[in-house]
Amino acid sequence: MRLHYRVMLFSASLLLPCGLQASEDKPSKIVRPSKRTLIGNSTLLASSGKWTLVPKGSVLYVPKSLNSKIVTKPKGKLLSWNDFIARNGSWIHLASVKMKQAQGREIISQEMIKQYSRLGKIVIATYSKAPISVSTKALIPPEQEELTKP
Description:
By secondary structure, the chain is an alpha/beta fold. The chain is built from five helices and eight strands. A hairpin with a 2-residue loop joins strand 7 and strand 8 (about 130).
């Protein structure tokens, strides 16, 4: 009988995911994700009634002549990144970045950024041929980074 009682006590305790146990004296807090959307966290590129999206922070340079290719609302047909780049490669340059640069742990050289402006194309940061966000820390020149520190 005593063994049965111990089993009942164990089965009455509430086990949560990851091995956490609920506390009876503290109410559990419900965590809800903030309202974020895929389009809201992306930059939209469009041309000829077709569009695609890339992560915010992946567009490194946009010449004034191509500002119209960056849109806020999608219109037309959504294309995959690979299909879009195949159709529109003439005005898009893919700039391969290191993971350390994307994370902001390594700076993209100012010479490289100047070269982007000379291309006359929209420059998209990529890692393993896919668009990737680049931390703004990677785009700050070293001398300006020292000025922004308190």
